[in-house]
């Protein structure tokens, strides 16, 4: 078992609980994960500094009371921690989750960043905010174990009751702890935080980015984003310690039905439908005149122009759309995914 490295200053404040084949094919498109680029595809692009945020010591940065969540009738009132108690940074929110919901981001992590996972001295991965059940953390561990059998996954939850409820799912390489944006003092290679920040204010979400990436290993990654209940539509930002690097949009295009051995195309609608699943940093900026609005508009236009490819299936149409897109794409082409340089979509 690989020892988990702790960031001592942050850990001091934390007491762990005891208890393809069809034509036409897009020129230059790749068809398999084996051709996917490693993390270098992310690190090779221009470093983008964290926008409008500056690093501050954790103690001066996020506190339980400085964060605010959307509070509507469906939301439980956020719990606040008593002064003097060791703090996990953040606030418990709804714990909605679903089996297989995060498969798109997991596959992206396991394939696009395979080299990073394979070569890391300490392959520690945190699933931040796993929700009411630990199912997506279990799946993350299983998927990453195929790439790096020694991977250690820590499910961190800010709701202690969810931490207690997850304990039966503990296994070799997978544990569950209480913690928040301070990452319980751990120093992970990767943090996956899906459907966590969407319930925070935009400014709190930006601060959370800053706090989380400060806790990463030097070549570490944060994948932060949002998806729908079944994970058919997902978007996420990939950040390094240097700030946000890319925006990935991913959509479910095909289903293989085991009983009939037939493949069904899914009606994506249009790529612009992904707008409602944009990460917190972008969703409020999707208005005419903004870069992200222009991107989604261009995706829809390219999707329409690629309509003739639908006869060969949604994957071929998606490839044709990407081929026509006049936007800085990053990494090798992937079915149902497009990754764009953050600098081109960053809000003003
Ligand atoms: C909507 S659930 C998402 C569950 C899972 N990640 C998924 O996508 O299916 C969000 C979870 O994040 C937790 N959460 C919110 N803020 C957190 C924080 N700062 N640190 C750790 N967990 C947090 C909430 O308590 C909740 O259980």
Percent in helix: 25-40%
Average residue pLDDT? 79
Largest sheet entry: 8 strands, mixed
Any low-confidence stretches, pLDDT <50, length ≥5? 1-85
| Secondary structure category | alpha/beta
The tally of beta strands, per DSSP, is: 10
Q: In the CATH hierarchy, what is the architecture of the domain at 8-14 and 32-249 at level 2?
A: 3-Layer(aba) Sandwich
Span of the ends, CA to CA:
45 Å
Q: Strand order, biggest sheet?
A: 3-2-1-4-5-6-7-10
Q: CATH superfamily of the domain at 8-14 and 32-249, please? A: Vaccinia Virus protein VP39
Distinct ligands, ions and cofactors found in the model = S-adenosylmethionine
Q: Explain this structure to me?
A:
With 348 residues, this protein is α/β, with parallel strands linked by helices. It has a domain at 8-14 and 32-249: 3-Layer(aba) Sandwich (Rossmann fold). 25% of the residues lie in helices and 17% in strands. A hairpin with a 4-residue loop joins strand 8 and strand 9. Helix 3 packs parallel to helix 5 and helix 9 packs across helix 10 (314-324). The longest helix has 15 residues, at 291-305. It is globular and about 50 Å long. Bound molecules: S-adenosylmethionine. S-adenosylmethionine binds at residues 89-97, 101-102, 128-131, 136, 156-159, 162, 180-181, 194-196.
